[in-house]
Structures are given as C-alpha cells and as structure tokens.
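Need tokens for this chain, all 205 residues.
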Amino acid sequence: MESLTPTKQPISIRPEHIASSTTTIQVKQHSASWSSGKFTISSTPTAEDPLFSKLFSVDGDVASLSQRRHFCDASGLPLFEISRKKVGVTWYLHLPGESSSKASSSEPIATVVPKWSALKDKFDVHLRNASVNGEETVLEVRGQNVWKTKTHVTHRGKLVMVVKLTDVAAVYLPGKRPSWEVVVAEGMDLSLVRWPIFCLNGGYS
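Here are the structure tokens for all 205 residues:
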C-alpha cells in the first residue's frame, strides 16, 4: 500500500467528517450500469466494529437535464449536491436546498474539471476549503492505469487518497456491481471520496 501523507491543514467541504487518522472506507455501487448515480459509502469492518457502518449515500437521476446527484450522511441528511449540464463536462458542487436555477448561477463550493489525457483519467477538483476560511485549494485526481482500477489523489505533490477497484471483473462481466476500497489520509474530509470514484467511472458516476 502506498504511503499517505497527513495534510498540514485539514481539507474539507464538511469539516465534521475530517479523518482523525488514516482511514479505509468502502464504496459500493448499487446498479450494474456504469452511469448509475446510486452509491453507499461505509466504514471498513475492524476487530472493534466487525460490521460495515454506513457513512454516506449518493443518489441521483442520470436522465435529468442537469444530471444532479444528492450526497447525504448516514441519517439521510443532505450534505451537498453535484450537478452538470448535459452538454458540459465540468461538474459543480453546491450546498443542499438550492434550486436548479440558483445553483446554476451561484458560486459553487467545488468544481470538478477534466484535464486532457490520452489514456488515463485526469481531473482537478477546485474546492473552497471550509477548514481554512473558504480558501481555494486544488486536489489532483489521476488514474493510474487504463483499466480504471486505481486512482491517486494528491495535494501539493503529496499523496492524500488512494482508490482501488476491489473486483476487476466488475468492469467486464455483465450484472456485476463495482465496489472500491478508499484509503484517506489524516486531515482529509471523508465525504471527498466521491470525486476519485467519479474519475474511475469515466466522469459519469
């Protein structure tokens, strides 16, 4: 396993979900379709807690005009919304409860911008760091191979997150539902795991 570096300052959009130590979590997609917007994000079982504990859920309508996703905590409380226009490639993150018209014109709290790459996924996530008075920072999300089985997330050259597809067959066999293991560095907001999965799904998740 690659060595992760704790962040010098916390990086978050939801400070209440900052990891206090290096943390491993699981992401499960609930449809065989790669364009599905339904996911559950759970803690990894340990000797102290042998069960998967739900942390977040993601739901959305891929057929909607704005392709909107809703990100909620374990109790179902909305945390933020992700959307893009059907003809666009950039995704925008807004606080919950904003109407589609308001969200399209207000300042997003994060944007996901694809970068050109011949074979591997490459995205930059520009976010207003809630832990540092909204100061803008950038996470670099980079696919490590053409099979979309691993993604690295770096901040200022330091590795802060690693995502691995747990079952490579899920990419090739009909009916398989992909899942991922995500290792997150101390100081990172756990809700940010959504973005590298986004890249592994080719930007359509």
